[in-house]
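G.,

No rush on this.
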Amino acid sequence: MAEIADCPPTVRAILGHKFNRLTVVAFAGWKVYPKGKKAPLIECQCDCGKTTVATKPNVLVGQTQSCGCFLNQRRIEAHTKHGQARKGQESALYKVWKGMLQRCSDPNCESWKNYGQRGITVKWQSFEEFERDMAATYQKGLTIERDDFNGHYEKSNCRWIPRRQQNRNYRRNRFIEFNGERLPMVLWAERYGLDQLTLRMRLERGWPVEKAITTPLLPDNERITFNGETLLLADWSRRTGIEVGTLWARLYAYHWPVERALTKPLRRWA
């Protein structure tokens, strides 16, 4: 084991940090490649209790996620006869399970950067454990949601919600830094009384972040006249069933005529 005094700053900075199933515990020397390039080796404690040594880059990007127990677990599971993973006939619950594993363990997955790369893992050790904890409350059309979007997939942090509701999930929103805080766009919109669509339109049109977030949706006395009737935009929103932010975007971001803004139905997704 290399002396702590020899530990490079980039390794010292991640001591004690967890990546997937591995917690960095020590600097373990250098791996020298044939052309002379070097990569720091780090000793890691795996969730299963074993230790392993891997290169720092492999651990950070998720190429090395465990001491080897994770792959063994997946191989065992692939041969487990729970009857829900038959090719072409996978159950809805098994597809949820498979999606979680992919997001948290496959660097080639489009969503991996929001899950596995951030250290989020699936705490259930097998599909059977997941089924035992979550199957009783599952219904067709529901999707799994984590209450703490920085937390792991585990019973205490997961529940079933309608798929449309998950469209509001924080990880699907653009993150914005303002006043020293980094929050999803939906939270900034809620905090300042905006609609998320309005905030997104402002940013896409080149508004500075501060102006986009802090500019009120409409002056309090803003009124819209249509068919001989003049009402506050909020009143038109209640009458038409179209959110205030959507009406604002139609009128002031897209410059729709008043009639079209107030009468065009919202697109309904199946």
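When you get to it, here's the other one too:
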Amino acid sequence: MFRRSSAGATEGQAQDSQGTQPQEAPAKSKPPAQTGKGRPTPKRSQAEANRYRSITGSTTSGRGRPAVSTPGRKLTPEEKTKARAAARSDRDRQLQAMRRGEEWALQPRDRGPMKKLARDYVDAHRRPAEFYMYALIVLLIALFSRNKAISTYISPLVIVLIILVAIDGFVIRRGIQKLIAERLPGSSIRGLTIYGLMRALQIRRFRVPAPQVSPGDKI
């Protein structure tokens, strides 16, 4: 009896193993479209173009707006020229809008109503820090002149400039803090002191965005 049962179990296991094998065969014969991602892998050039495309339609490498073309077709010289001209026009338009202070064209560090108030506060006053760059140019000329009489005054002048900039930074902080409290109560002025001071250190005609107010104007 025991021999028959063991033999029957062995035969049952063999039949089960033989019966399960045909069920695994269809899994191996699935088409690649079902087992994979279901779409062809794009070419490297096309993937790079889509990856580095900015929101304005130009590439981060600065090569301009990619022209619309069918895959596998090279652009003609005329199409390349038109694409470069369009990208140059977009850059010029964005630069002019940035200088005018339009919000959409500004860099992330310049956006927001608090940053605009800080810029207007700095631009509406003549500050000692505004002449810092001119003083540095004079000091550099004096440093390379190799005149011992002039070199003795360079170190004291540098110390005086640093003290003036520190005092001006403290005044800018107080002015911006008061202005924000009046116009945007409850807003934090974190980072606005350094932002205003860095703008005050720039020469007025080279500030970006360009000043929207003149010295002495009320904000």
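Confidence is low (pLDDT under 50) at residues 1-28, 52-67. The chain has two domains: 44-103, 108-206.

Enjoy the weekend,
O.
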